[in-house]
Each structure stands twice: as C-alpha cells, then as structure tokens.
Amino acid sequence: MRSAVFLSALGLALGCIAPFAKSTEPSQPEIQLAMPAGGTYHGPVINGLARGRFSNGDLYEGEWKNGKPDGIGTMTYMLGGSYEGEWKNGKRDGKGVMRFAGSERRAEVRFVDGHRVDVTEEHPSAATAAARFWLRSGEEPTGSHIRNKVVYASLPLDLGYDELTPDQQRLVRSSYPALDAGDAPPYPLKGGKELYRLLVALVRHLEIMDDILVYVAVDAEANVTSVTTISSIDTRYKDLISLGTGLLKYKPAQCGGQPCAGVVPFNLKLRTLY
Asked: Do 158 and 190 touch, CB atoms closer than 8 A?
C-alpha cells in the first residue's frame, strides 16, 4: 500500500513540476509494453569469435558467422539462466546445456531452428499474442477501443499473474529463454497499474520519447534486490523509472513448486502524439 501511495504521489507531482517541463499544454502520451527481444549485438568479433552484449542485455560469447551466433557459444540471459551449446544462423540449433532461470539446475537440451525438441514446448495462441489491452487517461482498463487511451499491452494491465488466463500465462513464460518446464516467472503482484500512471506523467510533462528496458531482480521472498535500466534518456529520468519499478510489489518466481529468485522485464516504448 505504501508503495502504491508513493507512486501515485510521485506521478501527480510530476504534473506540477516546472523545472523540467517543456510545455504548459503537454501532448497526448502513448506507452506500449512489449515482450523483450534480442535486438542488436554490440561488441568485438575477432577471428570468428565474439564476446559482447545484445541491446536487451543478453551476453554472448562464442563462434560467430555472417553477423550472428553460429557454431559453439554461450548466451547468458538478462532474464536468468544461460544456454551453452550449438547455434546456427543466430538460433539455438543442436545439442547444448541449459542452466535454468531461478533454480540454476542444469540439463542437457536439444533445439532445432530455435525450438526445443527434447520436451513439448507450450506456445500461446496467436489471438492471445495479438490481443491489446488499454489503459485510458481516466485509468480504467478496458479491452475496447475508447478515447484517450494512453497505455497498451498484450496482457491486462491491472491483473496479477494468478489472475491471467492459462494462455496469457504461457505468453509471459514464452519471453523467458531459459525457464524450465512447469516453472513460473516473477510478476507484478497487481499488474503495475501505478507504475503506468508514473510513466504517463513522465511522457506527458517531460516529453520523454525512447525505448526503455527495465529489469527488476526479485528474490525468493519477493524483495526487489536490484533494478537495471537500459536506455539513452537522461539519468535523472532513468532513476525515476527505476524507482517506480523498484517500489512495486511482486510475486516471486516458482521453481519446482517452490519460491525462487527471478527477473521481471518491462519493455517500454514511450511516445508523444502531437
């Protein structure tokens, strides 16, 4: 409750801030929450060997060909866990060893064209992946198209993980590249509605426009242990976003039916509509 009250106060205060504001009549904001993706590689490639990070923070070390992982390499994921093994044309392809997120358990795995074939993979339906849930400026979530909608995502913005449908839960799990079968990732306890209010205030009154990745590490007792923000925006604004995500309440990850540590991603696309 205290964190929700603080986030609300912070969001409202931003509406009254004069020093950083660019306009007394701010434009309509739009915020998209998406699933994280690999993005662009940054780092050296010497004699066919690479060691660097992708723009989502994943670390790759290994053989490289035609601008992609190809051969034997190890990817350590920002969302937890790692894969060490065979790659082809930028995808996991062949035999390898997976260190699973949260549990740190290791297992031999096999992939074909990026898809794991030693177990039955679960995939969300196309309809669930394509769904859009909106939060309008009046802060009431809806699945319909209404005026003044400012935040949208493929998942309900005010529901916790246990309140999602089984297919929506599969969509959440599908964004974790090293999650063991049957495990569940950490998740905002009530969907993070108060955080989105803060983000709307940032976009509306400071006209921040950028793609921002935020990774919130949560321990087995649901305590936030660290917040990592990947963005080119001003440090003071990154600090505000980090503070907002860090103050949310979370449910811990589940590994083998027991609480465990994990990472919650916020992939944010902040825009101003003139």
From this structure: yes
The residues, any chain, with a CB within 8 Å of residue 122's CB and separated by 6 or more, are: 170, 173, 174
Nearest to residue 178, comparing CAs of 232, 100, 121, 104? 100
Query: Taking 80 as the threshold, does the pLDDT of residue 145 lie above it?
Result: no
Residues 45, 227 contacting (CB under 8 angstroms) = no
Residues 6+ positions from 1 with CB-CB distance below 8 Å:
none
Token output for 25: 């009549």
Helix (H, G, I), strand (E, B) or coil at 254: strand
Distance CA 212, CA 214 (A): 7
Domains and CATH numbers, the chain: 2-36+124-273 (no CATH), 41-77+80-116 (2.20.110.10)
Quickly state the pLDDT bin for 141 (edges 50, 70, 90): very low
At 86, is the secondary structure helix, strand, or coil? strand
pLDDT, one tens digit per residue, over 194-227 is: 888 788 877 877 777 888 899 999 999 999 999 9
Using one digit for the tens of pLDDT, what is the confidence trace for 75-101?
999 999 999 999 999 999 999 999 999
CA distances from 144 to 15, 55, 152, 255, 272 (A): 27, 33, 11, 36, 21
| pTM of the predicted structure, to 2 decimals | 0.86
Q: Do residues 113 and 100 make contact, with C-beta atoms less than 8 angstroms apart?
A: no
Closest of 72, 77, 180 to residue 122, by C-alpha: 180
